[in-house]
Amino acid sequence: MTHSKTTRRSGMDRRTFLKAGSAGALGLAFAPGLMTGTARAAYEGTLDMLAWDFQPDTIKSLVSGWTAEGNPAVDVAVIPNLGYTPALQTRLRGGDKIDLYYNFAYNSQKFIDEGWAAKLNGLPGVDGMIADMFESARGRHVNAAGDIISAPYFSAVHMLHYNEKMLADNGLAVPKTLQEIYDASKSLTSTVESPYVAYWVKEFCEEYLHTYLLNEGVTAFDDAGQPVFADDPKTEGVFEWWQTMYQEGLAPKSLLNDDPGKLSNEMAQGNAAFYVLHHYFLTSVRSLEGPESANVTSAATGEKTLQIGEVLQLGQSDSDEERNAAWELMKYYGWKDSDGKFAVFNQWAKAAGLAAPYAGFFTDPEVIASFPDYYDLDLISDTFENGSDVVPARTLPWYPDFQAKVGDIVHALLLGQATPAQTVEALTAAAKGAQGGRTL
User: Domains in the chain: how many in total?
Assistant: First the structure.
């Protein structure tokens, strides 16, 4: 897959960009009277919204902007990301009313089945929201039965962030396959001790499982959710690569515990040449202003990569008026305002480089101006549209049980406690066990 790079000028230098992304600037952007044309929701009560603690001041300012245009008041509660799911479930089981809430995509169908979240079918404008999405993204929000179960909170694609100067100085092309990444990493060990970094903590290994399988053209689960990766001979080769990268020290031993901020700094300081994680981590590397920060850029690799994103879900409401008001807030927060602008997504782009799974997002002049020059939005848009999959099985009710087991299984592989073949068997057993089927 080839991409043509188009330079997109933001009109802001780095410091101005960071200042614009601050909570203070966002609060000004959404102060009363500065945003027009938002929908008015005919509901006299107060809506309740729950989110996790990524830039809570930003969340509150965005919602306040909606209320300031004559919409209902919203009580925004923010709780830690760590432990968010059990805390949310405890509240809902206890009868708490939450009109709109953040959720992890892998919980979304389960919450529908439990009666904690409402389907969006038939709500005004919902078909337009789905039609606006990249086709590649729809499987995260529409289930196999055609039910619309969520709206986007944010979306991202896994990409290869790399030090282009290091590659050029060593006569290396940007690697595309896992084998090419291995070969390039071996070539760079005289320059950097452990060239490859990725967020391999247990909780995140499941995302890399899909990223690496997709890189090599492996389908993990079929439409029925069966673990067909076990039937593809390339799967074992993916696990051989993963184990070899770690065992040979091409990825540092600390990766089993390192957080993304440390990994961004490794790239900024020139202690690593490759960093695979969501596209927006380019912002964290560049903003650190290390000696190598300006040399880090991004590329798509392999046949496909993983498209991820977390979601908004609509709670069960006491009345049609309350439900409709919550839906208006959901549309504003997870799609467009009534002027047809990506108002909320544009602020998240400014704040952190987050994206939306809508083709129009990447061609919107205001959005383009929100991204710094070092982002190739044509590349990211093309990766969303043509170079990534969402893996629909990741939203099925049984999937959280599988996701919770992947980290232990992959860490055993990396530490040499299991062979690649044993890893295939263990992951297959975990998937079937999560579905209540017979394990191997």
Answer: 2
Q: Are residues 241 and 273 in the same domain?
A: yes
Helix, strand, or coil here: 30? coil
Secondary structure of 321-385 in HEC code, one letter for each residue: HHHHHHHHHHHHHHCCCCCCCCHHHHHHHHHHCCECCEHHHHHCHHHHHHCCCCCCHHHHHHHHH
Query: pLDDT for 86-143, tens place per residue?
Result: 999 999 999 999 999 999 998 999 999 999 999 999 999 999 999 999 999 999 999 9
pLDDT, tens only, 154-166: 999 999 999 999 9
CATH of the domain at 217: 3.40.190.10
Look at strands 151-163 and 305-315 and give their pairing: antiparallel
Q: Does 181 lie in the same domain as 151?
A: no
Structural domain boundaries enclosing 228: 158-306+392-434
Nearest Cα neighbor of 216 from 262, 169, 176, 189 is 176
- 104 falls within a domain: yes
Q: How far is CA 134 from the centre of its chain?
A: 15
